[in-house]
Design brief:
With 482 residues, this protein is α/β, with parallel strands linked by helices. The chain contains 15 helices and 18 strands. The strands form 2 sheets. Strands 1, 2, 3, 4, 5, 6, 7, 8 and 9 form a 9-stranded mixed β-sheet that branches. β6 and β7 form a beta hairpin. α2 packs across α5 and α14 runs parallel beside α15.
Length: 482
């Protein structure tokens, strides 16, 4: 049997409760609410929907084998024998938690919304389980013994992490229910929610809950960093700016000029890796008459952005520090490169990450404005980095370290993978004022992705997190993981 708990997140709460109450498997339906507006439903009153106190009340209330957590009150219809399917899979597998794909109802049409499989690195607090989460009561009660229970906002997240320590999370790759569409924003707009200042209090709690989880599983790293010796190797150039590019004839000239206009007290060059562009990009690169510009066309035809980075980093003219600039973007002003290199020496770090301003194509600021990743702290930044979806820009690397680690040959998440690997051993320096302009325009590859592309990207980043968590567990247990 099931006890259902519906979080009162919208106007469809009553409808959601009615649908669930019709199932012969559902013993009771409770509405989790901060007010008394929902009528004809049993209520659990709480100050914050997703608080630790709410999770306490759910666990103390449930008296059936399973609890169904309905995290968004947007249920439009249950599929044929949907709850029977979920409980059957849970019974057959002993899984601690079950979830499934679903349909979204958009303008009268049923749109498939597949979700992704859970893995050890699926630790983002915004991991998409869909609306219906079937949790084994025994697993929740066991998890309750291991967590702090003191959060206003991160209670459900902390409980989910703790439950994952008790058993497997299984996705059923079937569309078992239909929801109303609840977030109509494009993918490029959603990805910055975690750095929105209005969510700062929430994010602090999420970090605390996640840090506790890392400590419990043996993946937490203390703020002890290996020293970096910048005199290990000799370089002709102090810095090389690296621009991988493919078919960016509209923007590549702006990016190149942004670099060549930098004012520094050290020698630098620019390595543009042209990944076999088929428009006028190559001709535009060649039109610059500046000996600092190196135009590289790889022999290989199988390179992603990460592979292009490797071509630049292993080029004989690469400088001591390799500094990122995307072919769409610009440095904030002529002092950017100097600020980045100064930060390396100031903090004796192996990587530096700056802050950036979001703009349109004409360099007018657009929401969310400045992205500075102030959630990064010297004490806990490299732990919290495993929870969030990116580390910021521009990124710069001490070249000998990057040559040892190497960049994954992919075109999404390659920078995140490298940042996590570097942070496992070395300090990452931060610049919290904008030194970079990130342009959003119709040519951006991540501006408006379909659900299949979003899922593909999330699977990869979760896999990167899985690898890194396992590496840190091995490191803490005395293994290699270097």
């Amino acid at each position: 049997m099931i006890t259902a708990f519906v979080f009162n997140t919208g106007s469809n709460t009553g409808r959601t409760c009615e649908l669930l109450s019709k199932s012969p498997l559902v013993k009771n339906v409770y509405v989790i609410t901060t007010n008394n507006e929902v009528e004809n439903c049993e209520k659990i009153q709480t100050g914050n929907l997703f608080s630790s106190d709410t999770m306490h009340k759910i666990i103390d209330t449930v008296d059936t084998e399973y609890a169904l957590l309905v995290t968004r009150a947007d249920l439009s219809e249950l599929g044929q024998f949907a709850l029977e399917r979920m409980t059957s899979v849970a019974d057959d597998t002993g899984a601690a938690l079950i979830y499934s794909d679903y349909f979204e109802l958009r303008n009268g049409d049923l749109i498939k919304h597949p979700v992704i499989d859970y893995q050890k690195g699926s630790v983002r607090d915004d991991f998409d389980f869909g609306t219906l989460i079937l949790a084994r009561t025994r697993s929740m009660k066991k998890a309750k013994q291991n967590i702090s229970w003191n959060f206003k906002f991160a209670g459900l997240y902390e409980l989910r992490l703790a439950v994952s320590e008790t058993g497997e999370f299984l996705r059923i790759p079937e569309f078992l229910y239909t929801t109303a569409q609840f977030d109509t924003r494009k993918s490029g707009e959603k990805q910055f929610d975690y750095v929105d200042p209005k969510n700062r209090e929430v994010q602090i709690e999420m970090e605390q809950a996640f840090t506790g989880y890392l400590k419990r599983i043996g993946a937490y790293l203390k703020p002890d960093f290996e020293p970096v010796n910048f005199d290990d190797e000799k370089f002709k150039y102090e810095a090389s700016v690296v621009i991988p590019v493919y078919n960016r004839e509209k923007t590549i000239a702006d990016a190149i000029n942004s670099v060549l206009n930098q004012k520094t007290d050290f020698p630098f060059n620019l390595i543009v890796v042209n990944n076999h562009s088929t428009d006028g990009t190559g001709e535009i690169i060649d039109s610059f008459n500046d000996e600092r510009l190196i135009h590289v066309i790889p022999e290989r035809k199988d390179l992603g952005i990460g592979g292009c980075w490797n071509e630049a980093v292993f080029h004989p003219s690469c400088g001591k520090f390799a500094v990122q600039l995307d072919s769409d973007d610009l440095y904030y002003d002529e002092t950017t490169l100097q600020q980045i290199i100064d930060k390396f020496y100031e903090e004796k770090c192996a990587m530096v990450i700056g802050s950036y301003q979001m703009t349109n194509f004409d360099l007018q600021e657009i929401p969310p404005g400045i992205i500075d990743h102030r959630e990064w702290t010297p004490d806990n930044g490299r732990n919290n980095a495993l929870r969030i979806n990116g580390l910021g820009a521009p990124r710069a690397f001490y070249t000998p370290v990057l040559r040892k680690i190497k960049v994954p040959n992919v075109s999404y998440g390659e920078d995140y993978a490298v940042g996590l690997a570097i942070s496992r051993r070395f300090q990452i320096g931060r610049i919290y004022k904008p030194v970079y302009r990130c342009r959003r325009w119709e040519g951006n590859t991540d501006a408006a992705l379909n659900i299949e592309s979003v899922n593909k990207n999330n699977i990869y980043k979760d896999r990167i997190r899985t690898i890194e968590i396992l590496a840190r567990i091995q490191l803490n247990s005395g293994g290699k993981a270097e």
